[in-house]
Amino acid sequence: MLMARIATAVPLALMFIGLVLFASPSLLAAVFGLFVLMGAWEWTRLSGLASFVLRSLFLVLIVAGLIAGSVQLQLLAQVQRLNVQSVMGVACLAWAVAMLWIKGYPSSAILWRSRVMRLIMGYLMLVPAWIAVMFLLSVPLGRVVLICMVATVVVADVGAYFSGRLLGRHKLAPNVSPGKTWEGFWGGFLACAGFGVLLWWLRPVEVSHLNLAAILAITLATALASVVGDLMVSMVKRESGHKDSGNLLPGHGGVLDRLDSICGAAPIFALGYMLANW
């Protein structure tokens, strides 16, 4: 299982880095948008939609959200920066609510198990994440900043995996994801703290105004959000009776199984970056 995950993850990581560093902004927007749509299609399955028409209609709504977000980003130099910040704030609030639902599962399912609520959850998970990624690409050294955001999620995941395997005893969310432990969580958290120090030490002059406290706050909040994103999708999969969101990626499941942590992390990272540079 681990080798299958590595065999899939390494080519994806190299492809991602190459795409971010060398592709045009328009191509990046299209590729990331395609992944969002693939994740949205998988989400309709987890939401209980069987009709092709209804599932396609949800994708149309997602596309409309991406277009609206793109318009706001095109006007970012003007007052619309506040609009983007508001979208990130709403997304962060939605993830805070999701954290409460995860803690209260399965009792909390009565609040969100309806198809409509699950579709709203999916919309608030996917569209703001794409807007956050596009925003990060628009800032100075944006391509490097985006890679740092994704690297933070990867460091949290890898740190949690190995510390959980070695030390894991106490379940983090037994009703949602029995394999995750508090030891794994803190291992990932500490790994991200170390990564934050490394980012501060290596930061270029363009972001030299960001002090260690700001960088640590952003990286640690991003690590926490990535865990919440992972657990939220796991919770919905458990409620809907699916082990994976799909089977596109060997050893990883579906696209959404890889996007879940990024979807939770991206708005938090983007909002933190905005506030640190306000």
TrEMBL record:
<protein>
    <recommendedName>
        <fullName>Phosphatidate cytidylyltransferase</fullName>
        <ecNumber>2.7.7.41</ecNumber>
    </recommendedName>
</protein>
<keyword id="KW-0808">Transferase</keyword>
<keyword id="KW-0812">Transmembrane</keyword>
<dbReference type="GO" id="GO:0004605">
    <property type="term" value="F:phosphatidate cytidylyltransferase activity"/>
</dbReference>
<comment type="similarity">
    <text>Belongs to the CDS family.</text>
</comment>
<keyword id="KW-1208">Phospholipid metabolism</keyword>
<keyword id="KW-0548">Nucleotidyltransferase</keyword>
<keyword id="KW-1133">Transmembrane helix</keyword>
<keyword id="KW-0443">Lipid metabolism</keyword>
<dbReference type="Pfam" id="PF01148">
    <property type="entry name" value="CTP_transf_1"/>
</dbReference>
<keyword id="KW-1003">Cell membrane</keyword>
<comment type="pathway">
    <text>Lipid metabolism.</text>
</comment>
<keyword id="KW-0594">Phospholipid biosynthesis</keyword>
<dbReference type="GO" id="GO:0005886">
    <property type="term" value="C:plasma membrane"/>
</dbReference>
<keyword id="KW-0472">Membrane</keyword>
<comment type="pathway">
    <text>Phospholipid metabolism; CDP-diacylglycerol biosynthesis; CDP-diacylglycerol from sn-glycerol 3-phosphate: step 3/3.</text>
</comment>
<dbReference type="InterPro" id="IPR000374">
    <property type="entry name" value="PC_trans"/>
</dbReference>
<keyword id="KW-0444">Lipid biosynthesis</keyword>
<dbReference type="GO" id="GO:0016024">
    <property type="term" value="P:CDP-diacylglycerol biosynthetic process"/>
</dbReference>
